[in-house]
Amino acid sequence: MGEDRKTPLHDEHVALGASMTPFGGWLMPLRYTSDLAEHRAVRDAAGLFDLSHMGNINVTGADAAAFLDHALVGYISKVREMGARYSMICAEDGSVLDDLIVYRIGAGEYSVIANAANAELVLAQLQERAAGFDVVLEDVQADHALLAVQGPRAAEILRATAGLAEDAEISGGTAFADLKYYACLRMRFEGEPVLVGRTGYTGEDGFEIWVAAGQAVALWRALLAAGEPLGLVPAGLSARDSLRLEAGMPLYGHELDTTTTPFEAGMGRVVRLDKVSDDGTPVPFVGRDALAARKQSAPARVLVGLRGEGRRPARADYDVVRRGPGTEPGTAVGRVTSGAPSPTLGYPIAMAYVTPEVSAEGTELAVDVRGRAEPFVVVPMPFYRRPQN
């Protein structure tokens, strides 16, 4: 194994006193002050995240849309220009190799954002699947930094950031105020083009900014300067994980992996079996046959949300058991994939795969927490929804 890579913002994190940790082949900030403070800042105001470790693959060419329809489970050719779509890349057996966000940033031009630990695999799979298509694949991860501002004051902070400006010439006339959810916009930072997306992974409003690696430090500092009076704080991986858990968002390696199809994970909606080519014939995308069969079959396990009725949290890989008299754990009916105390809600929450007969909302279960059966109940996800204005 080689040495963990560092993002262009590594020295900024160290200077801010961040605790650094290996993650997906990178050295990333785990926290700067406290997990709780960073989590609450995102819910109340905003957090600033370094996402420069994420994979970034450009797909260009006359067949770019048709190729992505073939390579991914989503209907990417239907994405509008400057729009985005959450999708997955699956193996022939329908198992999930990674979950992705795909941005259409021009005619025949797409950006595929992959999880850091899977970036090389995704690139290799796309290259393999590109045979026969007029496309060019380019790994541009090293050329850019990716910063994200997440929280209810995110838009206000971007508007206040010195050097970050709208430019009608490169935005096609779209204003920042008109940027919709799951869309992107070309802007400028200190005169140079940047791409701003509006997707998010915390359950809050949020923006992602792709900037040239050489401008990353300047943009990071400008965002902090604009945001600090509004409650913005830098936030690390720990807060990111607790936020996405509250929002009920799956994480690769936990809820998603090569033993799981999108249907078990409750993400069957991203699988578009109705994709057709220009002549009306079905698109034979990778994994289609296995996923079509899986859609018609009864699930062996179901991903559910669990709310703790006590104070002890469930953690990943703990057994889920039937709840019965006494406190001794019983026969396992599932396994926790993610779990933690919820800073926002004030009680433990978890996601778990369980057998179908115990997956109904309101089912009383327990989690084996170090030999003690802690009471949990099945609840709908997400656990948290941001207030609507």
TrEMBL record:
It catalyses: N(6)-[(R)-S(8)-aminomethyldihydrolipoyl]-L-lysyl-[protein] + (6S)-5,6,7,8-tetrahydrofolate = N(6)-[(R)-dihydrolipoyl]-L-lysyl-[protein] + (6R)-5,10-methylene-5,6,7,8-tetrahydrofolate + NH4(+). Its EC number is 2.1.2.10. It holds the Pfam family GCV_T. Residues 9-275 form the GCVT N-terminal domain. Keywords: Aminotransferase, Transferase. It is an enzyme of class 2 (transferase). GO terms for molecular function: aminomethyltransferase activity. Residues 301-384 form the Aminomethyltransferase C-terminal domain. InterPro entries: GcvT (IPR006223), GcvT/YgfZ/DmdA (IPR028896), GcvT/YgfZ_C (IPR029043), GcvT_bac (IPR022903), GcvT_C (IPR013977), GCVT_N (IPR006222), TrmE/GcvT-like (IPR027266). The glycine cleavage system catalyzes the degradation of glycine. Belongs to the GcvT family. The glycine cleavage system is composed of four proteins: P, T, L and H. This is Aminomethyltransferase. It comes from Promicromonospora aerolata. The lineage of its organism: Bacteria, Bacillati, Actinomycetota, Actinomycetes, Micrococcales.
